[in-house]
Design brief:
about 10% strand; two-stranded parallel ribbon; alpha+beta
């Protein structure tokens, strides 16, 4: 499956520079399979995810719900 082999690129850097916190809001305009957004959500942030690829959006929706 697609989500089993996906590893977000630059995840450590995204978390370092965005410094997600509870109550902070973020926009992920390249949601993809939800790797970065998932990490932000795990740290209490809120995410508005935008994705043009419907198949990726379905995967991200399952992963992040």
């Amino acid at each position: 499956m697609m989500e089993e082999i996906h590893k977000p690129v630059f995840l450590k850097e995204v978390l370092k520079y965005f410094a997600p916190e509870t109550g902070k809001r973020y926009i992920d305009a390249t949601l993809g399979l939800g790797g970065h957004s998932g990490a932000i959500l795990e740290r209490g942030g809120e995410v508005l995810g935008i994705e043009a690829d419907e198949a990726g959006l379905v995967v991200a929706g399952r992963k992040l719900s």
